[in-house]
Design goal:
The complex is a heterodimer of chains A (64) and B (212). With 64 residues, chain A is mainly beta. Chain A has one helix and five strands. Chain A has one domain: Beta-grasp domain (Ubiquitin-like (UB roll), Roll). A five-stranded mixed β-sheet of chain A has the order 2-1-5-3-4, with no helix packed on it. In chain A, a hairpin with a 2-residue loop joins β3 and β4. Chain B has seven helices and seven strands, in the order ααβαβαβαβαβββα. The chains are: A mainly beta (64), B alpha/beta (212).
């Protein structure tokens, strides 16, 4: 299980890119932190989610 | 017309914030990226609190559509936002140090703007720019804090605006969902609420209170 924004999800084994795509996130608006460290967008394809990982996905909305 | 001396203004701040807190606030540098409703209000709050140095970055000019929520005056319409805000901040806090960057921030130039500041305030309008800055600050540095915003449009409840600490150096203010768009515009009071969350979080970080 991977904890995504505090909730357990069956995402282990997928790359971060695969997971975000599955959940229909717009990559360009997203900031993703894996176990407390930001994952640069260039590494979404090569970052594999593992059992016990904690993932925080912030999807920004416009306005400011 | 005379203005208070630097010593008088510092003494007034010390009496309200405490000496140790004010020493930290006075020696802090904060970079504010985007000078719209969020950035201009954050800047005013931080200048009033006595933050020693502000770095202001925006490419835009003051427009009539900005006046209902941003900290500019009708007489400043057409001015560069960096210049107009600097003018206004110096009227409020004449001894503050202000650095301006009149540029559109991109992944290629953002480091020159934020290099000298321990804390970066994300105050862009555009969601992709917000994500770009988050990566630049959090992946590009190991010691800088990011205080960002997402979701403050409309007439929704003021109590939906919150501050969350996403991780050690990443704070996010707003309701997370209220996006500017068709039929949902930015309202001065709710934008100010979100800006106040960000400004207060920045002051708490400066004074060593990093929890939320």
């Amino acid at each position: 299980m991977v904890k995504v924004n505090g909730k357990p999800e069956d995402a282990a084994g997928r790359t971060l890119a695969q997971y975000l795509e599955e959940k229909s996130f717009d990559f360009k608006r997203v900031a993703a932190e894996l176990n407390g460290d930001i994952v640069p967008k260039a590494q979404y394809d090569t970052t594999v989610l593992r059992d016990g990982d904690e993932l925080e996905v912030v999807s920004f909305v416009g306005g400011g | 017309m005379s203005i208070p001396t630097r010593e008088q203004m510092l003494a007034a701040a010390v009496s309200r914030h405490g000496e140790a807190n004010q020493r930290a606030i006075s020696s802090a540098s904060v970079a504010i990226c985007g000078l719209g409703g969020i950035g201009s209000n954050v800047a005013v709050a931080l200048a009033r609190a006595g933050v020693g140095r502000l770095v202001l970055a925006d490419f835009d000019r003051v427009d009539v559509t900005n006046l209902q929520r941003q900290q500019y005056k009708a007489t400043q319409t057409g001015m560069l936002k960096t210049q107009a805000l600097k003018e206004n901040l110096l009227e409020i806090a004449p001894y503050i140090q202000i650095v301006t960057h009149n540029i559109r921030l991109t992944d290629d130039n953002v480091r020159t703007v934020i290099a000298d500041s321990q804390i970066v305030c994300e105050a862009f309008d555009d969601a992709q720019c917000k994500a770009m800055l988050a990566e630049a600050v959090l992946a590009g540095y190991t010691d800088k804090y990011l205080v960002a915003c997402s979701g403050m449009a409309g007439f929704g409840s003021p109590n939906a605006i919150k501050t969350r600490r996403i991780s050690g150096r990443f704070y996010l203010c707003g309701d997370g969902i209220s996006e500017v768009g068709e039929g949902l515009g930015l309202v001065s009071s709710r934008v100010m609420l979100c800006a106040a969350h960000q400004a207060h979080t920045i002051l708490r970080i400066i004074t060593g209170q990093t929890d939320v």
